[in-house]
Amino acid sequence: MRTHIKTIAFDADDTLWVNEPYFQEAENRFCELLAAWLPPEAASQELFNTEMKNLHLYGYGIKGVILCMIETLTRVSNGTAQLHLINQVLELGQELLNKPIELLQGVEETLEALHRKYRLVIATKGDLLDQERKLTKSGLQDYFHHIEIMSNKQVTNYQKLLKHLDCSPANFLMLGNSVKSDILPVLALEAFAGHIPFHTTWKHELHEEKVEHPNLISLNNIADIIKHLD
Amino acid sequence: MRTHIKTIAFDADDTLWVNEPYFQEAENRFCELLAAWLPPEAASQELFNTEMKNLHLYGYGIKGVILCMIETLTRVSNGTAQLHLINQVLELGQELLNKPIELLQGVEETLEALHRKYRLVIATKGDLLDQERKLTKSGLQDYFHHIEIMSNKQVTNYQKLLKHLDCSPANFLMLGNSVKSDILPVLALEAFAGHIPFHTTWKHELHEEKVEHPNLISLNNIADIIKHLD
């Protein structure tokens, strides 16, 4: 059916490998550090507020999250927290940066099946060095023609990527787990998108409304894309 | 003389615009915060030690520096610093991220003179979003064919860049202020490099030995490159 697809871009975090569960685990531990001042849900909301306030400055990625955790801790404790809690937050960040890479099911087989027939690229956001390190750890880099680490995933960012790849929207398919970042901006450009749900999503990436679009394919898992392309 | 040059890459920080003096100002203010525990020079050395310890994890850029300042503050004060000092460090970081862009002398005229005849690119390291924001603020983006924000500037990073640009080393000239990052790895690839000294350099970028190489041009300022290319 979709034989006009020439380039397939993959989101990385929670599409190729596990990511959000590690962030949630770190956030849970952060909320425990704040237990003297706030119940976990309220602590999590405070952190989210700090993240949203600073997103335009810090962008996405672990380093920004850790800076936001520290800012939240000083605010919520009203300056009364002991300094060893700051160290525990710094350690949470360094642990996150050192996490192993756990590939999601079907990823390697899917890339193996597609990489000779299509130009495969990664389109991901986050800290530059961290995303490069994860790709190296994943062992997947040889499947990809190009790695694009983006500061954001809005329509203009995808426009730049398509220009850079010299690829028409009609020949471009993006696969990812975030409706907001991987699907909607791609559909807005009249390119193609495949949604692969992941069991948990960062609040900031949530998109509640159901999306229907002739260029959108809903997949149960990454390997399903193969039969849609045949 | 060097009419085989087709692509000219520019370092950004302290080559196109002022950067290191802002970092040094922030570091001086950080050292003042530590005055109760250490004299300024020792505080600066402690920060440098933390930065070197964490460089493989955080990479280059403001967010990593701020995380290192916080870690240094907790260590040097042996956990006794008050939390408002942490807030002051976070504010230092946010101020750095909001600094205006001050172009160095001759930059705009040089780009104007070169951009029709050569393919101009930026090759810089640092935080992704921060470097993009500085470029936007600079108003220079239309002169450039491509912007490469690199996690590091070692030989392998330049090899990837040349491959990506489909450019032979013999046709590539890199201009920058850091002998370590902008000159030596480029010369190692048998490409061309032009060194434009800046009055102050981060300790980590210092290279004390004099470099002599047939592919190296020493420039007094950025505009000097024009006469070398004619």
- The whole-angstrom Rg of chain A is 19 Å
Q: Report the uncertain regions of chain A.
A: none
Q: Taking all residues together, what is the mean pLDDT of chain A? A: 95
CATH domain class of the largest domain in chain A: Alpha Beta
Percent range of helical residues of chain A: 40-55%
Read across the widest sheet of chain A, the strand sequence of neighbours is 3-2-1-4-5-6
What is the CATH topology descriptor of the largest domain in chain A? Rossmann fold
- Give the structural class of chain A: alpha/beta
* Distance between the amino and carboxyl termini of chain A: 7 Å
Oligomer: homodimer
Q: Can you tell me the CATH superfamily of the largest domain in chain A?
A: HAD superfamily/HAD-like
Number of domains of chain A: 2
Main beta sheet of chain A: strand number and arrangement? 6 strands, parallel
Q: Count the helices of chain A. How many?
A: 9
Percentage of β-strand residues of chain A: 5-15%
